Every structure is written in C-alpha cells, then in structure tokens.
Amino acid sequence: MKSAGARLLAAAALLASTTGCLRGCPSAKPPIHPNPSMDDQPKVLAQTSSNFFYDGSAMRKPVPGTIARGELRDDPVYFEGKESSGAFVAKSPVATTPEVVERGHQRFAIYCQPCHDARGEGHGILFQRGKVPTAALVDPKFVAYPDGQIYDVITNGTGLMSGYRWPIPPQDRWAIVAYVRDLQARHAVTTAAAAPATAAAAAPAAAPAAGARAGHR
Ligand code: HEC
Q1: Could you give all domains of the chain from N- to C-terminal order, each with its CATH number?
Q2: Contact 83/99 with Cβ under 8 angstroms?
Q3: Ligand 1 centroid vs 51 CA: distance in angstroms?
C-alpha cells in the first residue's frame, strides 16, 4: 500500500508532465504567474502625475535644506571667496602651483578668452563685433581686486557679464583666478619693459621689449 507522501509525489509528477516544464522552457504562451501582487500593487512610477499630491506630481522633492552626501558647502572662503564677515578673501585658499596655473590657463581659454581675449585686455568677440565694453583684466583696477572678488565675479557675474557658477566648479574657478594673476604679472613685466623704450625712444631699448612681448600669451 502506498503512503500518502508517495501519492502526493506521484500527483506532482503527473501535474508536471501535463503542464510541461514549469520553468526554463521557451513557450509562445504568456508565462504562468501565480502571485502577481508585486506587479499590480498601487505604486508611482518616476516622472508620472498623481492626483494625490497637491502639486499633481507623483515624485516628491527633498525636504528643504536637504544636502546630498559630500555636498555640504560650509566653507565660505573656498566656496564663495568670502570671510565669515562677508569681506572678500585677499588670497586664494588654493595654493598656486604650476599645475593649478596651467589648469587655469586651459579653463580661461574655454570660458573667459572669447570675451576677455587671450591677453586679458578685453578685446574679445563682444568688443570686436559690438564694441561692448569688456573689462581689461590686466587693468590696475583688477590687479588691486582681492582674489576673492575675482572669484566672486566668476561665480556670480557682474553688470553685463553673467556668472559661471554652474559650468565651472570651485576648484577650477580658483585655478582661473591664479591664471588671471599670472596674466596680470606678465602684463606688468611687458609694460615695464616697454616703458623705457617709449621714454627714451631709443632703438636698443626696443629689443628687450619686443622679446618680452613675444613671451606674452
Ligand atoms: C560673454 C562674454 C564674457 C565672458 C565669457 C566672460 N566675461 Fe568677464 N566680463 C564681460 C563683460 C562684458 C564685462 C564688463 C561687465 C560690466 O562692467 O558690466 C566683464 C567683466 C569682468 C571683470 C570685471 C568685473 C568688475 O568688477 O568690474 C572680471 C574680473 C571678469 N569679467 C572676469 C572674467 C573671467 C575670469 C571670465 C572667465 C571665467 C570671464 N570674465 C568671462 C564679459 C565676459
């Protein structure tokens, strides 16, 4: 006499043989789906509308003041170029190394040069095409700006110039500040070298001035 267990096994085997294999066999028929609750449960999909929330959007915004991991910008010197008093920092918090200046040069060429020109004299495309007054970055007025103020102009813009907070991350903004300082220093050298030539109007003095200019990018 067969035990109850053996009979159950035989019934299971019969079921398997009549329905074909339950998993792993290709079939043109829709799959057997014994427990569809996870698929059919009420839920919201990304970017869909909802009449449950007052704003009609299914997706919720983060609670105001939420800060993503690694995005806490609690250092006003580095992120805004300002002391906690609100005054512009005199010196960049990023050390000026040849790598930083080179990075700044590269970023300047992309973001600033179209308008301020490669020498920082303000003779870029706006000036050439529309005579738009564009600041000469080598002007003594901007040489006298604290580093934090140049950083602030890049971050927030000023007057006709828009801010570059979004396309240029803080580290690159400071690199550009370092490069602007480099441009200003080289401009000072070339104008100093040119000065005796104009003062004396002497031919020999013109030679070093020309040499210095050639090196002025
Ligand atoms: C689309 C053209 C344009 C670009 C790009 C641009 N600037 Fe300017 N910038 C201007 C104009 C125009 C002014 C004069 C604004 C005014 O006085 O209304 C100006 C002014 C400035 C000033 C003087 C601000 C002041 O306080 O008077 C600085 C410094 C400066 N730009 C730096 C930069 C740097 C650095 C970059 C690159 C990150 C840059 N600019 C990119 C057009 C531009």
Answers
A1: 93-188 (1.10.760.10)
A2: no
A3: 47
Instruction: Judge whether 181 and 191 are in contact, CB under 8 Å.
Output: no
At 163 the three-state DSSP class reads: coil
Encoding tokens for residue 82?
């300002």
In this prediction the pTM is 0.71
Ligand 1 cavity residues, CB under 6 Å: 111-112, 114-116, 126, 132, 134-135, 137, 142, 150, 153-154, 158-161, 164, 176, 180
Each residue's pLDDT tens digit, 163-214? 999 999 999 999 999 999 999 999 999 888 887 655 444 444 444 444 344 4
Q: Which residue's entry shows tokens 């915004």?
A: 61
- Residue 145's SS3 state is coil
Tell which wins on pLDDT, 42 or 55. Answer: 55
pLDDT in tens, 1-26: 446 666 766 665 555 555 555 667 78
123 CA to middle of ligand 1, Å? Answer: 11
Q: 96, 200, 76: which is closest to 148 by C-alpha? A: 76
Which position has the token pair 């999909």? 45
